[in-house]
Structures are given as structure tokens and as C-alpha cells.
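P.,

For your records, the input lines for the assembly:
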Amino acid sequence: MSYGRVPQDDGRFAPQAEEPARAMHSAPRARRVAWLDPAVVAICALVLAPLGCGDLLTTKPPAGTRFDQPLDGLGNSELGDFQDGQTQFRRAFSISEGLGPIFNNVSCASCHSGDGRGIPTNTLTRFSRAGDLALAEGGPQIQDKAIPGAEPERLPVGGEVSHRLPPPVFGVGLMEAITDSTILAHEDAGDGDGDGISGRANWVTPPAFVPATEPGAGPGLRVGRFGRKAQVSSLLQQTVDAYHQDMGITSSFRSVENTNPLSSVVVPGLDGAPDPEVGGQAVNDVMQYMRMLAPPTPGEMTPRREQGAALFATATCASCHIPSLRTGAHEIEALADRDVALFSDLLLHDLGDGLADNRPDGGADGREWRTAPLWGLRIAREFLNGALFLLHDGRARSVEEAVRLHGGEAAGARDAFVAMSADERAALLDFVESR
Amino acid sequence: MSRARPIANPAARLALLVAAVVLLAAPGVPAATPPRVGPPPASKVSPEPPVHGNPEGISWGGHGELRLGHDRVRGTSDPEWFSVGRVNGFARARLAERWRVAGEGTWDRATDDFVLERVELTYRWKRTFHAHGGIFPAPLGRTNLSHDAPRNDFAEHSLVATQLVGVPNAMLGLGVRGAAGGGKRPMTYEIDLVTGFSDGLIIDSPGGTRLPIGRNNYGDNNGLPSVVGRIEFHPSPDAEWGIAAQSGPYNQTEIGGMTVDGRRWVHLIVADGATTFAGVRLVAETGVAFVDVPPGLLGLYAEDQWGASVEASRTLWDPLFGSWRQSALRVAVRGDAVDLDRGLRGDSRHRVSASLNLHHRPRAVARFGWYYELQRDRFDNETPQAGVTFTAATYF
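C-alpha cells returned:
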């Protein structure tokens, strides 16, 4: 019901239309239009066109050109799990649903653009002091957002600080399925072959909440493979900590709210949701979703890219960015026993002073970083407004800039790249950016 | 991604708003002036709904809309193909010579919410001046004041209506409505004290500031009123221009006796217009919102939002056939956009729509429509969405 906006005193709330039977058609009364009036035909054609033209109803992107696609070969049940997990991954939390009291962002998808990498404005800040996680000062991660009534954490003076760009989440199931022995086979901690490159694994202890049945869990030290310094061995741990540290969402794995230890404000129950704020199922759904995310399809190998691939190898880039590793057995068949073209050895390497954050993480020291996978670079710009943010903190805006910032064990490869002709460098970059 | 500064001095802004509305409205309430306003321009949007019962006693009515659609998001079909678009029922009664009471409820698919749109008591002080109180639609734009399903030229309301104003948006309050000006160029006005928005627009809103989630604040979460007002001009019989504004505090400063935040304000300005040019009906609506966001949420929650829509419609055949005297066929196109965070590139929606409307009888319409929308997330990643819809709407 709509009331006329001029009060009337005739027993009605609104003006009587002049001619109710007509008034619906809106004024002005049109002259009668010829049936074949070109304008009318054009308008009708425009309206009816979607029935026969798929483009007007949107089209699916070509296969392999997105970061949020499931692996090939998943069963119906697994695809159902994938859908459930995608819903949870994209779920943004409101304050009344448990967001906070301190946090960095509102959903998984809010940090990982299109399931790819993040952007410099949503980097996470890791903090520690003399190797200690500095829990009493807000470490190991600074939560710079807070709900009303809580105080966001501020970076303490001094200590070790590391800014971390959210990494892509596709393909992590494949990374998980690569066996420890495959990774360790590429270790050369003492640089025994004398090539100046000495990769080593980051041996870490998974937290107690990770069941021993989970990949990367179990008693003792395990090979870390997730995170910028391979400081996490278990995908479940990565997921639980993202809920807890990044969003301030408690789960059945970590059910105590993360609070600002330096705040004088007492904030019990401020976020309005009882703990745990999500059940184990939601966490598991997200973990399974990430596990089953497929990497994008690499670009076509042209002769120029073949040349680039050869240069990539001769410059010793491929010594760390190993083009392919093979997975082992996995309960998800689509992950098992296949070659994975991630262009990483998942090992730690000293990248020199320029890239050092001087903040140890697990067994990694302040100069070491896990070799970053290069897959997905082909379409990364599409999810970053045409920009590209590379290296652990996103400081490099192009592959070439990232290469030139390499140091330490990668200095030789960098120098070889710089020594190439412009055409050769272009071929190498074309190859890398087509992966 | 630089962000706009928070609104400076909300109290001063509110004072200016109230002063402006009162000053502009004042000419309309000279008690001794005989009413000069004749019948307003006949509504060119739609007729009055049919009313059952006794208009001098108790009457009732309503409207509804069914929607069949094929929607696709980035080429993937939405499994939902049939839904109720909106449904509404109202009742009203004349209690005495000067007293009226009305009730109305609406469910709308766009906001997926049932809204108690009206529980309103009206006192007709004089023909051109009414006082009213209770729950009633906030006078925030022409769509919120007039959104009956059979009146619409489109199956969906505009983005500014659904994402910014939150149509249907009703509030608890009291105020006055009136008219002024000559019979040929009347001006109408409304000014109310209302409960305003609640902090649900932040606290219950995942993923950013969303004013519609702070609607339905019937209980008033903070005990402080908001001011909402509207002035509408009718420069010619088929033209109307309106501007509306609302301002008020939205949040609670204490929870369980503990101070959690300072007073925070939300301001919403909506302007709209309609006219006819060369046989084409043109309707536009635009709105801008300013929200005082708690400092701990800056960067994630928008301080500034904006939206606009422009639509053009034309009657093609009236009547459709000579023997079907009450039928008509109309075509309409609309472009609309909303930027839900002006401090950020992204978090926006843009849409074009077209609709072919068969009014096979008065007060009912069957529409065939198409829309194409680009939604951008906070990374500015684009998600295209489109659909064809068939809707049927009628008054009961």
C-alpha cells in the first residue's frame, strides 16, 4: 500500500486516481504505435535476445583460468565437500557471529583474492622478540582490527617484524600430498655439490590439537611445507590458526578467544557469540576445500617459452624452483601419485640480506624463505586489478623485479639472469609468467 | 586505497539538517491560512491499490508477486527458479472524524526480510497537515514510499533502493506530513523523529557496512532518535522532485554497564525525481550515506556509500488490442549502480535491466525482464551475473 504524499480530507489517505482503470499504465497515454515500429521491434529483440544468446546471461570462464576450481577426478561426494568448504571459505563473519574481539579480516576469501594471493594492504604482521613468540606483547601476529569495546594490537617497538602477504591457497592439497622423502631428496643442507645452493627442510612440531591421523601431524618433528617459511606442516593447523588469529573465530580446536594482552579493556563475550564460534565441521570443510583446489592450467608452450624454460634451467633457477614434484598416496585419489608442476622444492633457502626479515620461524632463520611456487602466475594479475605482488611481503611488482631482489643462495641465478640479453630475459620471463 | 576521512562534527551536521528541513517545511503550516492545495497531480506512477471493505470504516487489501527466473552467476545457473518476489497486506480503519489507524506488513525477496511496514495512527489536524505516530515507512526516496509490486516496471527494485535505503524501510516514530504551495505547483513535506538505524549495520553485517541490516530498529537500541525529513515538489502535473535526509546516532555506547564506544552517527541523503519527456517517463533516484565507523573497524567497514538509478519507460500500446480496452504494453530500461565503499576500489555493483510489461488488466502486470550485473568484491574482482525473469504481480 502506498499513501499519497499529499494529505486528503475526503475519507481516503491518498488521492483518488483520475481514472483507476487507466492509471496503472502511467502517463502520458501513448499514441497507438504501429506493430512494426522499428523502435518497438528493437526493444523487444533486446529483451528477447538473452533467450538465444549465452553471452547475455554470462558465460563460464575457460577451464583452468581461475583459482577456485576443483581438481579434476573428484568424486561426487568430494565435490559436495568442495562446495560446502567453498561456502565456509567465503563466509564473512559479522561481529554478532563471533568476529574478533581482535582480528585482521572477516573471512578467508577477504585475504586471498579469488583464492589467490593477497595485496599489500592486507599483509599480516608477524612479530617476535629474540626468537620468542612474544605472546605477552601481541605476538606472533599483530591483529590490527578490533570490534567496538576492544583495542586493536599495535606493533611494539623493537623486536623482529615480518610482513607476510597472504599466499595463494590453490594447490595446497597437492603440496600436502608430496611425500617427505620427495622433498628431502632435494635437500643439500651443507651444499655438498658445491653449487652454492643448499636447501633444507624446516622441521616443525605440529600443535597438539592436530590429530595424528592428519597429514603432517604425529609425534616428533615433521617436515614443514606451508607458510612463507614452511613453518607449518599440517593443513589443519594452518586452517585453525587462520580462523583464530586472522578472524578471531574460535573453533573446537582453539576455543579460547585471542585477546590483546596489552589492552586495559576487559572484553569477555564482547563479540556476542559463545565459544567455540564454529564447530570442527566448518574448519574441516574449509581444509577439505583448500585441499581439493586445483592449480590453474599452465599456458601453452610456445617456442619462445621453450627457450625461456631452457634459460630458466641454465640460470639455475630450476635448482630451487623445481618444475615438478610427485605426490604419494593420499586418501583423495585425485591428489595421489601425480606430477605437480608447482616450481618449488618446498625447502628453505637463504635469500640474502635484502630479503631477510631477521625473524626466525620454526627451524627457519631470519634470512631463509621457502621457495615460492610459481604456478598460477599466468592469471595472477586478473585477480589483483592488473597488478602483481610478489615475494613474501609483496614488494616486487613484476617477476623481473622479484628476480633482481633475490640474493644469498639465489645470487648466482640472479646474476645469470641479469647477464642475459634483453631478448633472453624476455623469453625467460614469458615462460615464468605463463605457468 | 586511500580512505575518506570520518565525518567531522556530526552534531553540527545534524543541527544543519534539522534547521534546513524545518525552515523549508515551515511555510506549509500556517494555521490560519486556508488550504490552497487542490488535489495533487494524479499519480503517474500507478493508481491507488484497490481497497476492500468500507473506506469510511475498516478496509483492507494487499499485493503479491511471483517470480520465475533463470539466473546465472559467471555462467553457472542458480538452482532457484521460482520464488515469491514480494507479498504485502494492509488494513486500515477510520476511528473518528480526524483519526485514522493503519497496519501493513511486507516481505521482499531483495532484502529477504519481513518488515512490519506500518502500524500508524494519524491525526488529521487540517486538510493539509497531519500528525502521525507509530511504525511507518521512512520518507527516504520515492521507492520506499511507493513500492507496491504491481506498480514497479521491474521485477527487482533498484540497487540504491535495496542496498542503500533498504526498501521496505519502516521505522518507529512520530512526526508530521503536510502540503503547501499553490494547486498547480504543490509542495509536500514530512518530518519525523524516528528510531533510526541500529548498530546492526556494522555488528550484524558481515563483509562491510550495510545500512539495510540496521533497519527494523523498532525498539530503538540506543534511546536516541534520528531525524528524517522529505520535501517533494511538483513543478508540473507529471513531474516531481524530492529530497530526503536522515541523521542520527546508531550505536550503543554501553554493553552490560561497560562503555564500549563513543556515540556514532549515520547520515543518509536521498534525492529522486520523475518527469516525462517526449512520451518517455524518466525516473531517477540517488542516495549517499555517511557512517561514522568505530576506529578498530576502519579499512573494513565503509564510511561512505553511494548509489543511483535511472530508468526510462514508455507505453507502447494502450490498449494492446482495440477490444481489450483495459490492457497496455510498456517497455522499460534501467541502469543502476551502488558503491558500497567509496574509500575502496571495489565493493560495488552495476546493473542494467530491461523489462517488457503487459498490464493485461488494471492493477496487475506480467513482466518479462532481463538484467546483467557486475558485482565487484573488495579486491575489485568482477563477478558477472545475469538472468531472465518472468514475474506476475497483482493487487489482491
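Two observations worth noting. The first strand of chain A starts at residue 102 and ends at 103. Chain A has twelve helices and eleven strands.

Regards
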